[in-house]
Design goal:
The structure holds 2 protein chains of 2 kinds. Helices cover 22% and strands 27% of the residues of chain A. Chain A is built from 5 helices and 7 strands. A 5-stranded mixed barrel of chain A has the order 2-3-4-5-7. In chain A, a hairpin with an 8-residue loop joins strand 6 and strand 7. Chain B has 2 domains: 99 residues, no CATH class; 127 residues, no CATH class. Chain B contains 8 helices and 10 strands. In chain B, the strands form 3 sheets. Chain B has a 4-stranded mixed sheet. Chain B starts with a strand and ends with a strand. Classes of the chains: A alpha/beta, B alpha/beta. Chains A and B meet through helix 2 and helix 5 of A and helix 3 and helix 6 of B.
Chain lengths: 180, 279
């Protein structure tokens, strides 16, 4: 299993070299969005309007951080469970989104979209929000501030540690439960 | 008659909410350390290393262990000889929770189910009251995350399905949840009662310490049997494979209707945050 250091924006060539089980360290900008923000993003697309950030080459992190205490850019910031965004992800991938970051299983539709649009699903360690926040150097709300923890934030990250869960070649890291 | 001041309850609850979110319970830490030593797969070992580092960081920095600081769930035992002065007990607990989540920089996760608008202060708390003999007031708080709660289920089995039906349902639930609820989990199982009591009991069961053996040796045996079956699934920490899918199974049993075998499975993520205070 290889180790990769990638800088955003992510290219097709970056995605193609990632294999299930590889460790990836991301540096650059990533965007936070979870349940309520995804609903608004898709409603914005339906209305024919432009999104608050450029999807091309982007990574979306499924996270609703805790409030930043004084002197810190952000509070705890670990992943939320990804399947709730499955209905939205294929459309966003078709518009250039190169990857999503979360935890837990994805639908067959999402996995197919990863192959079709050359994108990747990356896993962060769930419940390690204090630890992951140490790799976030800046956070600013860029849209939907009224959603509070669900607002879209642009995070600046340095060597943000991730695992390739689903690659664009059909690979899957999660083990199938042994039901005997 | 013991008089307890609402102000004291508010302060204790606020402190408890903050501490629960920052301090990994000692029994869970000990279980992480044991699992870190026991796991052979590098990925599984690495997850436990990260979780231990995360717990140290939360303790040292005051950041919450997890950004999902949960809905605040309380189990309250109110002695019949206790009276609260200054506000209602419910207000005192909820106001304390609001203060704790604000002052501790904890995430507010409560929202309207239709509009999805955040209530802004994590209220309302979910409070289960029990009236008990005596003059003590015991308040237990749990910060319950949404990811693990979403993987929980209630079902009404037929009496004929018996223990096999119970075991199959619990193990299949954990298998189907897979990596979603942040394994290694702790599995609370409510058996018997009725539809709502089974659910409440499955959550109440999670308040027990991990190394606490069930007082009924027959139930203790069933807990061990379920844990062994769950860990044989091989899901492992974060679903990456390994020996540790769950750290414990805790069962709470209640008598049920002749026609029923209610069963609830409440899955708790590894960030098993709870505290208690007694007045």
């Amino acid at each position: 299993m290889a180790e990769h250091h990638l800088t955003t924006p992510i290219t097709d060539a970056d995605v193609e070299k990632l294999k299930t089980g590889d460790v990836v360290f991301i540096t650059g900008h990533i965007y936070t969005a979870r349940d309520a923000a995804h609903k608004r993003l898709v409603e914005t697309l339906d209305a024919g309007k432009s999104l608050p950030f450029d999807l091309k080459g982007a990574l979306i992190y499924y996270v609703g951080p805790s409030p930043a205490p004084p002197g810190r850019p952000i509070g705890s910031a670990g992943p939320t469970t990804s399947y709730r965004m499955d209905t939205y992800a294929p459309r966003l991938h078709s518009l250039g989104l190169k990857g999503t970051i979360g935890k837990g299983k994805r639908s067959d539709e999402v996995k197919a979209a990863l192959a079709t649009h050359k994108a990747v699903y990356l896993g962060a360690t769930g419940g390690a929000g204090a630890l992951l926040s140490q790799r976030i150097t800046d956070a600013k709300v860029i849209a939907y501030e009224d959603l509070g923890p669900e607002a879209i934030r642009e995070l600046t990250v340095k060597d943000f540690p991730l695992l390739v869960i689903n690659d664009c070649h059909g690979g899957e890291l999660y083990v199938k439960p042994n039901l005997g | 008659m013991k008089i307890v001041q609402a102000k004291d309850i508010r302060e204790a609850v606020a402190a408890m909410c903050i501490a629960a979110n920052r301090e990994l319970p000692a029994d869970v830490r000990a279980a992480f350390e044991a699992a870190h030593a026991a796991e052979e797969a590098p990925a599984a070992k690495e997850i436990f290393r990260q979780l231990l580092e995360n717990a140290d960081l939360a303790r040292d920095t005051g950041l919450p262990l997890c950004q999902d600081c949960g809905l605040a769930v309380f189990f309250v035992e109110v002695g019949e000889d206790v009276r609260v002065e200054g506000s209602t007990l419910r207000e005192a607990i909820n106001d304390g929770m609001i203060a704790g989540y604000k002052d501790g920089f904890l995430r507010k996760s409560s929202c309207d189910p239709f509009t999805r608008k955040n209530t802004g202060d994590n209220s309302p708390s979910i409070i289960h009251f029990d009236i008990v003999p005596g003059d003590a007031l015991k308040i237990t708080m749990m910060a319950k995350g949404g990811g693990s709660e979403n993987m929980s289920r209630v079902t009404m089995l037929s009496p004929a399905q018996g223990w096999k039906g119970i075991k199959d349902f619990v193990v299949n639930r954990v298998a189907e949840a897979g990596p979603n609820p942040c394994p290694p989990t702790i599995v609370g199982v409510g058996i018997g009662g009725n539809f709502e009591l089974a659910a409440v009991n499955s959550k109440k069961a999670l308040m027990r310490e991990l190394d606490d053996k069930h007082p009924d040796p027959e139930i203790a045996k069933l807990e061990d049997e379920l844990l062994a079956a769950i860990n044989a699934l091989g899901i492992g920490p974060m679903g990456l494979g390994g020996k540790t899918t769950s750290l414990g199974v805790k069962i709470l049993v209640a008598p049920c209707h002749l026609a029923s075998l209610p069963l609830a499975v409440n899955i708790q993520c590894h960030s098993a945050r709870h505290k208690e205070v007694i007045f």
